[in-house]
């Protein structure tokens, strides 16, 4: 099988299924079809056999090691291409977001990870620390990221000196509707941008309402929408600063994707978020930095 898009790996969380990637992948597929495959994403997913990593910390390091092997194997699939993708995007739901963060620092994979998107994930602190494995795991990742990532960028033109600075780290929380991972746990001191889906107004059918993602999100509920109006100015300004800081990774940043809780499995209303009125390109340009040059995607 030949892969010609930009690689994206979905990592499920506590008791999560690899099938949760279907909703994200289906939207990416339609976007690829809409633009004639000029830019598109290749979705991969990890099967943890629905392990309850939220209840036993002893399996966390095993999951990190497994995802590391998956990342290296995925990038090998592109070796026959004339222009090989130089990095991958990791999307983690729940504890999958923490696993993605750990993969970037534990096995020196920071150079091949373009972006980490953590959805309803307890990043800096666990929801419950039931054993010493959890405590040791979180402390180890905290120490690695503290040593290898700049917490404060004084200028958007400041050069990155640490290995993890090149990774764009986005965290998405579910707000008051998420009863498993509360708002304070879904953000991170290491994150470039944090968004709460409970504050995003979206259109479903003929009405506009506020929806939110959840720690219990299942496969048909991980979906992408189009905002009924542009993001607030302050949000757009913050996002623009992030992209300027990491402009070598993102050549044409236009959109941000999120996941929401949906009442049914229908996908007729699945669309994209717009950052501003001029954002009229496709979703896959969010990962423009995955390829060495823009011409490689044609």
From TrEMBL:
Involved in inositol deacylation of GPI-anchored proteins which plays important roles in the quality control and ER-associated degradation of GPI-anchored proteins. Belongs to the GPI inositol-deacylase family. One of its GO terms (molecular function) is phosphatidylinositol deacylase activity. GO terms for biological process: endoplasmic reticulum to Golgi vesicle-mediated transport; GPI anchor metabolic process; protein transport. Its EC number is 3.1.-.-. It is found in: Endoplasmic reticulum membrane. It is a multi-pass membrane protein. Its main location: endoplasmic reticulum. Residues 3-187 form the GPI inositol-deacylase PGAP1-like alpha/beta domain. This is GPI inositol-deacylase. The lineage of its organism: Eukaryota, Metazoa, Ecdysozoa, Arthropoda, Hexapoda. Keywords: Endoplasmic reticulum, Hydrolase, Membrane, Protein transport, Transmembrane, Transmembrane helix, Transport. Pfam families: PGAP1. GO terms for cellular component: endoplasmic reticulum membrane.
């Amino acid at each position: 099988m030949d892969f010609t898009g930009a690689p994206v790996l979905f990592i499920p969380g506590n008791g999560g299924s690899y099938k949760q990637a279907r909703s994200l992948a289906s939207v990416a597929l339609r976007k690829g079809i809409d633009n004639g495959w000029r830019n598109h994403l290749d979705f991969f997913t990890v099967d943890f056999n629905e392990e309850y990593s939220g209840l036993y910390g002893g399996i966390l390091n095993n999951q990190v090691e497994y995802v590391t092997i998956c990342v290296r194997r995925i990038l090998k699939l592109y070796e026959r291409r004339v222009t090989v993708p130089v990095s991958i995007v990791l999307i983690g739901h729940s504890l999958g977001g923490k696993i993605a963060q750990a993969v970037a620092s534990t096995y020196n994979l920071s150079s091949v990870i373009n972006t980490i998107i953590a959805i309803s994930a307890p990043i800096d602190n666990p929801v419950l620390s039931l054993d010493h494995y959890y405590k040791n795991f979180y402390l180890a990742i905290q120490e690695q990221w503290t040593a290898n990532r700049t917490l404060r960028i004084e200028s958007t033109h400041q050069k990155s000196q640490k290995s993890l600075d090149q990774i764009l780290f986005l965290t998405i929380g579910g707000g008051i509707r998420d009863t498993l991972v509360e708002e304070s746990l879904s953000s991170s001191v290491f994150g470039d941008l944090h968004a709460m889906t409970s504050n995003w107004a979206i259109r479903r059918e003929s009405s506009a309402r506020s929806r939110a993602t959840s720690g219990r999100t299942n496969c048909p509920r991980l979906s992408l929408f189009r905002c009924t109006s542009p993001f607030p100015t302050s949000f757009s300004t913050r996002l623009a600063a992030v992209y300027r800081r990491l402009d070598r990774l993102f050549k044409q940043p236009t959109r941000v994707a999120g996941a929401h809780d949906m009442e049914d499995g229908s996908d007729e209303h699945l669309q994209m978020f717009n950052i501003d009125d001029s954002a009229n390109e496709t979703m896959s340009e969010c990962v423009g930095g995955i390829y060495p040059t823009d011409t490689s995607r044609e």
